[in-house]
Amino acid sequence: MAGDLGLFGPESITWRVHADPILLISAPRALLLQALHPRAIAGVMQNSDFKRDPWGRLQRTITYVATVVYGTTAQAEAAGRHVRAIHAAMTAVDPATGERFRADEPELLRWVHVTEVDSFVTTAQRAGLGLTADEVDRYYTEQRRAAALVGLDPESVPGTAAEVAEYYAATRPQLATTPGAMEVLRFLVSPPMPYGLGLTPVRFAWWSFSALGVSLLPRWARRLYLLPGLPTTDLSATASAYALRHAMRALPRRVFEGPLYRSAMARAERSVARADAPRPRSATARGDWLTG
């Protein structure tokens, strides 16, 4: 395990994107996109405890993503098995048709995967990470490895920005502003604060955080939530994300570095050190002849 750099490694675009703390604001964007799929939100509303334990659920999601990105191969695969087992045990009822469906239907897994990785890389780009078009495509292609962990056929998952755009265009007719989606929006804007922080500046900081996440949604998604879909909102959100990223970069890195990240960096450093170390010469090259 000491030399195992996991599914991606230091040369990947994935490590570069996920090392930036600005990705924290991608969470509201991803959740609100996911909630627009009627079956996806039905599965959440009928199975999830997100309203009773929103911060615990958020922490578990962050830990899962960090494990997939920075964990060893064994850790990532174990996390994937755990998620697949949870999904396999879940069913829900489609409120429109009355049909019972499984939470691990490929269509639903694909929607959650695409909205998540799109939110990660889009947020990073709009905040000024500066990826080229080829690097964005490489990110989507790399993330097919994460899709495989939850049970998807990697080839069935969009692997470039153009394929993601095509996927959204094909899926949008299925999306709707259901009561569940609006409930997620209301809850996201004003969730219960942990540790008695409800009447403190933390609440105002969260409002700003969630508002920025909402503003980073695509225009068509904001319109579905009955929110402004104007280009000026895009410009304002991009400027805010850029300013926030640079403010966060002024803080010490250790504030945002978790144990999985630090462990991955240590393994990468050891791997580089081993690669740079001079190889011992053979006994013949040293002249260490064996005699009887």
Give a brief description.
This protein has 292 residues and is an all-alpha fold. 62% of the residues lie in helices and 2% in strands. The chain has helices at 13-18, 26-35, 38-47, 54-70, 73-88, 106-126, 133-142, 144-149, 161-171, 179-189, 201-215, 219-224, 231-249, 259-276, 283-286; strands at residues 91-93, 100-102.
Can you put this structure into words, describing what you see?
Residues 272-292 are annotated as: Disordered. GO terms for molecular function: oxidoreductase activity. Keywords: Oxidoreductase. It comes from Hamadaea flava. This protein has helices at residues 13-18, 26-35, 38-47, 54-70, 73-88, 106-126, 133-142, 144-149, 161-171, 179-189, 201-215, 219-224, 231-249, 259-276, 283-286; strands at 91-93, 100-102. The chain is mainly alpha-helical. The chain has one domain. It has a two-stranded antiparallel ribbon. Strand 1 (91-93) and strand 2 form a beta hairpin. It is globular and about 60 Å long. The chain starts with 12 loop residues before the first helix and ends in a 6-residue tail after the last helix. The model is unreliable at 279-292 (pLDDT under 50).
